[in-house]
């Protein structure tokens, strides 16, 4: 079966024409905020690809709230705010968290009155101690390495309108879950949930994580490019680890740089690449939109699911 059957495909110029840049002028403060996130981010991508996507999301969000109000009126129930949840999927190191932060900044720009929160499912990985106990250290990121019940309960509580919901957090430099630093999510209007596993089907649970999503994005690129981005990120992790003995990568940063990169290349080949091929890529055609990247993270094609 043609996996693109249900998608409209657009090149950048066509996609941009749906919402020309002049409609939202980014201030210097906006640009500074984006550049502080990552100074390599292309502002052309932001204006030509992300702003039309944000406009589409704004329309979907408004529709969603209207539908919800009509339903509550029909059921003679009082209306309450129900968070709109956006999932962002894709390989390790494809740029999910960078895209998620961009969406958060731009959604806030277009709808300044809304509270937009962002979490990553990395926090729902079992802690390293538990992964070791289960013999799963080399399976980090694979479906069995996540506490899916905890993630589903978290999403359920957010959707149910709980005043405060705790999300565990993860640090790449500690290489573990930060059990003492949970993130507190307080009644968001929009919640972005970013992670490699957000479009996966559960093995035991009766619910999918994506059952909670109102819109989903898959960030896509050729595996060879993603490996390069993985290694570039590893280089940045090494640079920051250099003077910090508590950093997971400290000993690699102190030792031979070539050997450190050989180790990272091996981890990519043994763990993250098979995970991409076996468990992440097969979820691509569940997304509402696929952002396809080429060299230098430039988005060259956009696939939008047909209704
Ligand atoms: N749009 C972008 N432009 C330039 N570099 C980017 C962009 N998106 C991601 N990167 C870089 O690629 C690497 C992986 O991105 P990251 O957001 O950490 O990926 P993920 O969350 O998917 O693991 C990081 O070094 C990040 O700085
Ligand atoms: C924590 C992760 C599963 C998730 O990755 P992310 O999407 O945040 O890049 C990944 O970064 C990871 O640690 N994978 C295990 C093998 C490795 O060290 O790359």
Automatic annotation (TrEMBL):
- Tell me which EC number(s) this protein carries: 2.7.1.33
The segment(s) forming the Phosphoribulokinase/uridine kinase domain are: 85-233
Record localization: Cytoplasm
Q: Where are the transmembrane segments?
A: none
Keyword Kinase in annotation: yes
Which top class of enzyme applies to this chain?
A: transferase
Molecular function, one GO term: pantothenate kinase activity
Q: In which pathway does it act?
A: Cofactor biosynthesis; coenzyme A biosynthesis; CoA from (R)-pantothenate: step 1/5
Q: Which InterPro entries does this chain map to? A: P-loop_NTPase, PanK, PRK/URK
Catalytic activity, reaction form: (R)-pantothenate + ATP = (R)-4'-phosphopantothenate + ADP + H(+)
What's the short name of a Pfam family annotated to this entry? PRK
Q: Does the keyword Lipid biosynthesis apply?
A: no
Binding site residues for ATP: 90-97
**Predominant localisation class:** cytoplasm
- Which PANTHER family does the UniProt record give? URIDINE KINASE
The record's family statement is: Belongs to the prokaryotic pantothenate kinase family.
| Name used for this protein in its record | Pantothenate kinase
């Amino acid at each position: 079966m043609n996996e693109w059957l249900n998608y409209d495909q657009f090149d950048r110029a066509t996609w941009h024409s749906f919402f020309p840049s002049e409609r939202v002028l980014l201030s210097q403060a906006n640009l500074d905020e984006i550049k502080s996130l990552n100074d390599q981010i292309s502002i052309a991508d932001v204006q030509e690809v992300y702003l039309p996507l944000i406009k589409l999301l704004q329309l979907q969000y408004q529709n969603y709230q209207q539908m919800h109000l009509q339903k509550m009126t029909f059921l003679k129930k009082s209306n309450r705010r129900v968070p709109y949840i956006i999932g962002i999927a894709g390989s390790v190191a494809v740029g999910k968290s960078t895209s998620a932060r961009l969406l958060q900044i731009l959604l806030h720009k277009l709808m300044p009155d809304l509270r937009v929160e962002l979490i990553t499912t990395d926090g729902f990985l079992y802690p390293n101690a538990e992964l070791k106990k289960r013999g799963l250290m080399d399976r980090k990121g694979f479906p069995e390495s996540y506490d899916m019940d905890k993630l589903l309960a978290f999403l359920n509580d957010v959707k149910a309108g709980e005043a405060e919901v705790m999300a565990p957090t993860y640090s790449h430099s500690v290489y573990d879950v930060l059990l003492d630093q949970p993130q507190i999510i307080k009644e968001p209007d929009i919640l972005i949930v970013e992670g490699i596993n957000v479009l996966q089907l559960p093995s035991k649970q009766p619910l999918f994580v994506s059952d909670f999503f109102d819109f989903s994005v898959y960030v896509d690129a050729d595996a060879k490019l993603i490996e390069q981005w993985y290694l570039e990120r590893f280089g940045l992790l090494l640079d920051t680890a250099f003077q910090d003995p508590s950093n997971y990568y400290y000993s690699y940063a102190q030792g031979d740089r070539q050997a450190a990169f050989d180790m990272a290349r091996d981890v990519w080949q043994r763990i993250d690449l098979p995970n991409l091929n076996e468990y992440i890529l097969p979820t691509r055609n569940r997304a509402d939109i696929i952002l396809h990247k080429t060299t230098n993270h430039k988005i060259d094609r956009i696939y939008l699911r047909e209704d």
